[in-house]
Amino acid sequence: MSKHTSETTIAIAGAGLSGLCLAQSLLHAGFDVQVYERDEAPHARRQGYRITTDEHGIEALRRCLPPRLFELYLATASDTREGGHFRFFNQRMQEIFSLAFDGDPTGEDLTKPRQSDRQTLRALLLDGLEGRVHFGKVAARVETGSDGATLYFTDGTAVRADLVVGADGANSPLREQLLPDCAPKNTGMTAVYGCSQLVQDGDALVPAALADSGVLSVGAPGSAFFFTTMPFKESPAQAFGRLAPAQRPPVEDDYVMWAIIFPDTVFPSDQRLDSTALHGLALAASREFHPVLQRLVERADIECTLAVPLRASIKPAHWPPARVTLMGDAVHTMPPFGAHGGNTALRDAALLSEKIQAAVHAGASLESAVDAYQREMLAYSFKEVEASEKMMARFTTRNPIMRWGMMRVAPWIQSLRGKAVDLEAA
Ligand SMILES: Cc1cc2nc3c(=O)[nH]c(=O)nc-3n(C[C@H](O)[C@H](O)[C@H](O)COP(=O)(O)OP(=O)(O)OC[C@H]3O[C@@H](n4cnc5c(N)ncnc54)[C@H](O)[C@@H]3O)c2cc1C
């Protein structure tokens, strides 16, 4: 039997997307929730990248956030009224094919994907959790019993809770302890990410024809260049001032997020470089691509360059329910192809919150909530892991026949169908 809501204590390791989203939901449902974050402060690291929130992520945010914060999410995400494209190019920026996304004249259709700045999202997720998010606490391991679990930190301290949730990201020490056979496997690729302010010296860095697009340019075997813009619908300063004045919006200006995918032969995944060295590497690699892409790297904000080894989790074969569970990248890291990692993490948070609430209200055990959550979560999340691996393999293929088809034949077919994209117009 579980306790009443207000007597039930939940400890979450990791104040990232899923950890904070779960905390918001449980706090508003009346639970005693505490979050323990490794970083020393809310915006201690530059994490200047945008994520595409899709219908699952948006729905999870709608279910977990108080209406005021959901409104803030919509205000600071991109505008969906115009629609957009996903465009695939070869190295010389000849279009291989493109997907068009319809606009939504109402701007209110919550199934339409939106771009969202991750740091801005994190700032709004922190609102109202003051005093409940404890920074500088590095979770190390957990011990479970029949009536709760103890979360231990590297500083020698520990907390006891009815349920511990590991939302501590792709390198989760809790996953290592709980599911030692499921360490994410290397895909043989690393992405170096960067960001560049969209408007510089009065000019937009991205040609007008690509302003509404996510763009993937396929390079030499195993490499690719991706970019997309993060256009805020409302200025974050204005939107936060209106809806969450206690939070400082970490990013103000529209920017372009770019990424270069490197094979391990060029960038060994265990290599550790600082942002200046990573930027130098990206700059050299960008020379293989079209000048439009080179310019994005040349004009980057060097400080926000980061490297992420692309890994894919292994699905647990057996995971008995206990007073501890995992969410997000901690259990299902996936390559960024398809943009589902964060959305799946948010979906986990909404699902776990609802299972916990249902169990407590029915007087059922927290183990039953964890069991129901783990079964459902493993089914949808590993479909996404598999799909993202397949998509990555397709676009970074080294198979000469597949590459020939994709790089030579497809642009030719495209050229018969219509006009090439004009990259000159700014
Ligand atoms: C450049 C880039 C672009 C991406 N684009 C998209 C996209 O378009 N769409 C999408 O859906 N996903 C995207 N993703 C993936 C997405 O960001 C992740 O899947 C998502 O952040 C996972 O959420 P999470 O809560 O599991 O982990 P995170 O958001 O990574 O949070 C984990 C938190 O745990 C903390 N932590 C780590 N270890 C410990 C510890 N031992 N103790 C305490 N705290 C700890 C970390 O500091 C962090 O705050 C992108 C990722 C990158 C890098």
List keywords for this structure.
binds flavin-adenine dinucleotide, 5-stranded parallel sheet, FAD/NAD(P)-binding domain, single chain, D-Amino Acid Oxidase, Chain A, domain 2, 426 residues, alpha/beta, 2 domains, globular, 7-stranded mixed sheet
Report the helical percentage: 25-40%
Task: Sum up the overall morphology in one term.
Answer: globular
Bound molecules: flavin-adenine dinucleotide
Low-confidence stretches: none
User: Would you tell me the overall average pLDDT?
Assistant: 90
Per CATH, which architecture of the largest domain? Answer: 2-Layer Sandwich
Taking the sheet with the most strands, its summary is: 7 strands, mixed
Count of extended strands: 19
Detailed description of the structure:
With about 425 residues, the chain is an alpha/beta fold. It folds into two domains: about 1-40 and about 135-185 and about 315-390, FAD/NAD(P)-binding domain (3-Layer(bba) Sandwich), CATH 3.50.50.60; about 55-115 and about 185-310 and about 395-425, D-Amino Acid Oxidase, Chain A, domain 2 (2-Layer Sandwich). About 35% of the residues lie in helices and about 25% in strands. It is built from twelve helices and 19 strands. The strands form five sheets. It has a seven-stranded mixed sheet with strand order 5-4-15-16-17-12-18. α1 runs parallel beside α2. The longest helix is centred in the last third of the chain and has 30 residues, at about 365-395. It is globular. The model has no long low-confidence stretch (mean pLDDT about 90). The structure holds flavin-adenine dinucleotide. Flavin-adenine dinucleotide binds near residues 39, 193 and 329.
